[in-house]
């Protein structure tokens, strides 16, 4: 991988990554690497900056071994190094918005009252959504997923993004039952097994001439 | 920006980026830079690899100037260099799935019939969704958005992700009316104006102790 210019680094990473089917259970992500991956999640943007998400990071063997049965039997959650579940807030209620406004005020040294128009804009959008905010909060969760996947590839850490998690089964394992949060999407991170069959498969993409339109 | 190791490059990029409010309308992304950004979109992963998206890239002044009125009057679509709209497929109908299966077969030199179990898995999932696939296809669109934003930051290209687009107004401008595709989310790309007020604002994030749970 050529680190001498970011263009080459990015292109190499995009072409290096693939969705790992079989992880090497013995190899672990280091604490320093995890720190960069966690920053990629935490610093990812969201609509209004609202961050209607939580990141549940499972790295203990005991807990990881409980996960396959909540993931249609897939082995990646158990065999990877770090399994990240991104959970969305079911409802961005006024208390949550207030908490966010307070966070802006504290970070920027402003009075909360000076942010009323921001609060009103967010609350107005949420009100127009009705009671079910999950379709919108769940979308937001895919932004940090993208950042996480690309950071992992840049660090040559393998990954497998997974929608195949059963919220009803995995939420209790993650301590999310009876909370405002529910699992949306996940990502296994670690290192491919030497015999991962998916490593040999050619990448499939529609040609850019079909998916990209220039105006 | 320190290019000597990817950890430092990523951390610097994550902290460098912010949502630009005011672009410099005179500065343009080069063709070589755009190529890397486009690869970041095209090579981003999606559930099953189905890619239920199109990327509409607006870089002509004439077309960009038509966009603010379809974006709540925001100026970023007109003043940026490249405005990318990510559109989702309203319905991933059996013809689209067949087209995808054919793409796998051609890329990997397989008989389409050998991919029947893959086709059945996708069709089964879609059938369980009912007629409205947009809540799911729209989520997928946020993955390439994440890749695009992070690649831009790594290249020190400014960006502003935008949900504030009106599909009913922007779709006709993009040639999406009466098609299977509808605009979901967008991203303005280019360079910040010297007097962009947003550049001075401290980044607001909940502390990791609140959003990250380790198990």
Care to describe what's here?
2 copies of one chain form a homodimer. Chain A is of the alpha+beta class. Chain A has helices at 6-16, 31-42, 61-64, 76-79, 94-108, 116-129, 134-154, 167-173, 208-211, and strands at 53-58, 82-89, 158-162, 181-190, 212-214. Chain A has a 4-stranded antiparallel β-sheet with strand order 1-2-4-3, with helices on both faces.
Features:
215 residues, 9 helices, NADH Oxidase, globular, four-stranded antiparallel sheet, homodimer
Produce the secondary structure layout.
2 copies of one chain form a homodimer.
Chain A: H1 6-16, H2 31-42, E1 53-58, H3 61-64, H4 76-79, E2 82-89, H5 94-108, H6 116-129, H7 134-154, E3 158-162, H8 167-173, E4 181-190, H9 208-211, E5 212-214
Antiparallel strand pairs in A: 1-2, 2-4, 3-4
Enumerate the strands of the largest sheet of chain A in spatial order, edge to edge or round the barrel. Answer: 1-2-4-3
Question: What's the total helix number of chain A?
Answer: 9
**What value does the Rg of chain A take, in angstroms?**
19 Å
Measured between the Cα atoms of the first and last residue of chain A, the distance is: 34 Å
Q: Oligomeric status of the shown chains?
A: homodimer
Overall number of strands of chain A: 5
> What is the H/E order of chain A?
HHEHHEHHHEHEHE
User: For the report, how would you describe the main beta sheet of chain A?
Assistant: 4 strands, antiparallel
**Sheet/helix structural class of chain A:** alpha+beta
- Assign the CATH topology of the domain at 6-91 and 131-193 in chain A: NADH Oxidase
| Overall geometric form of chain A | globular
DSSP strand content of chain A: 5-15%
The CATH level-2 architecture of the domain at 6-91 and 131-193 in chain A is identified as: 3-Layer(aba) Sandwich
Largest interface by Cβ-Cβ < 8 Å: A-B, 74 and 74 residues
Mean pLDDT of chain A: 96
* The CATH C-level class name of the domain at 6-91 and 131-193 in chain A: Alpha Beta
Proportion of residues in helical segments of chain A: 40-55%
Give the name of the CATH superfamily of the domain at 6-91 and 131-193 in chain A.
NADH Oxidase
Taking pLDDT < 50 over at least 5 consecutive residues as the criterion, the unreliable ranges of chain A are none
